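Quick one:
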Amino acid sequence: QVQLVESGGRLVQAGGSLSLSCVASGRTFSAYAMGWFRQAPGKEREFVAAITSSGSHSYYTDSVKGLFTISRDNAKNTVYLQMNSLEPEDTAVYLCVEYSTAWVFQGGITSWGKGTLVTVSS
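Output:
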């Protein structure tokens, strides 16, 4: 059973930047695609970004394209989410996920982290 631990969430002003990290343990990290979801207060959980096991391909929800960047370091068992030009609507708990395959859309999600809170003030 893989364990995912997110960090990096904090209060930031609108227009600012933030980098989130997720460290995985318990499985061969480099074999699986990873991703980020977020859940804002009172809203459903939504997909943010994902990256294939090798890091060769990444995917984003439309609202964050060009603003957020997902990356991974397989030597450190870590996936990152760099968030730029943050707005109050980006306020949410950000959750790290592991997929069941190397490619994002060929399998389901096998594990979820507990999340890290990002609050963007106006």
